[in-house]
Amino acid sequence: MKAMLLAAGLGSRLRPLTDQTPKPLLPVGGRPLIAYTLLLLKKYGIHEVIINVHHLGEQIMRAVGNGDRMGMQITYSEEASLLGTAGAIKKVQAQLGDAPFLIINGDILIDLDLDAVAAFHRQRGGMATLVLRASEDAEQFGVLEIDRACRIRNILGKTPWHEADARAMMFTGVHLASPRILDFLPREGSITDVYVEMLRRGEALYGYLAEGYFCDLGTPERYHRANRDMARGRVRLRHLQNVSPEAFTNVPPEAFTNVPTGW
After folding, report:
1. Cα 66 to Cα 130: distance, rounded to the nearest angstrom
2. Could you give the angle at which helices 114-124 and 33-43 cross, rounded to 10 degrees?
3. Cα 13 from chain centre
4. Which of 13, 30, 55, 163 is the most buried (most CB within 10 A)?
5. Does residue 120 belong to any structural domain of this protein?
6. What would the DSSP string read from start to end of 53-99?
7. What is the rounded CA–CA span in Å between residue 24 and residue 36?
């Protein structure tokens, strides 16, 4: 299986931290954020990774390299202008091939069994499986509703569906997609809009429910929370077992520029 790691965003909500450092390289617990995602993929045998880059992308490419140090094969999709999540995936369609592929946001920390996600996806046979979780912050991130069979019925209120036992969830930014989804993708735009349109057409999307540690580091408050959680031993990431503390710390000095300490 291949993976698409979305790392091209401007990180606007994290300014000034991201003025000189791309969000994926901000340090969390002594490692750049992107390292945790790459180690997760490697743990579950996903060694071929495509990373899209835009804002300060040269720093990411220099820090991560071609993946040799991690026993991975990493390539880059450089975006002169932002294409959106759907456009970013469409741009590398030829590289993704004809097998299911993983899509993962570059600004999250997540404890997740990717083998279980893949098995769920194969069993359901939907166009895509979105990794969801129950959260008191679901409204803040955008609510998705699933039925008793974990089929997604409503996204952001755009595909209204009325059922007494509907469950409201939030999307983690991890999804496993059938290659058939590539035919639905525009050259620019959001994959969320694509999923909404697919629901309207009756296509099957499913939600896999994750319960492990999760943090979206898209705001200063959540970024600092993740670092506090790390410092206090509250973060359990199973894919870091047997990984040395020194793993993937060879990053350029500018990766740690203007990052506040002592929070």
Report:
1. 28
2. 60
3. 17
4. 55
5. yes
6. E-TTHHHHHHHHTTSGGGT-EEEEEE-SS--HHHHHHHHTHHHHTTS
7. 10
- Residue 261 domain flag: no
Classify residue 132 by its DSSP letter: E
Asked if 52 and 7 count as a contact pair (C-beta separation under 8 A), the reply is yes
Specify if 48 maps to a domain. yes
> 231-259 burial by CB neighbour count: b if 16+ within 10 A, else e?
eeeebebebbeebeeeebeebeeebeeee
Q: What is the CATH number of the domain that holds 173?
A: 3.90.550.10
Structure tokens of 196? 């909404």
Burial letters 59-88, b for 16+ CB under 10 A, else e: bbbebbeebeebebebebbebeeebbbbbb
The residues with which 93 forms a beta bridge, in sequence order, are none
Alpha-carbon span 173 to 141, nearest angstrom: 10
Nearest of 94, 31, 110 to residue 63 by alpha carbon: 31
Give pLDDT tens digits along the chain (263 positions): 999 999 998 878 888 878 888 999 998 888 899 999 999 999 999 999 999 999 888 999 998 999 988 889 999 999 999 999 999 999 999 999 999 999 999 999 999 999 999 999 999 999 999 999 986 665 666 789 999 999 999 998 888 777 767 888 999 999 999 999 999 999 999 999 999 999 999 999 999 999 999 999 989 888 998 998 888 888 888 887 655 444 444 444 444 343 333 22
Domain region containing 87: 2-236
| Domains identified in the chain, total number | 1
pTM of whole model > 0.85? yes
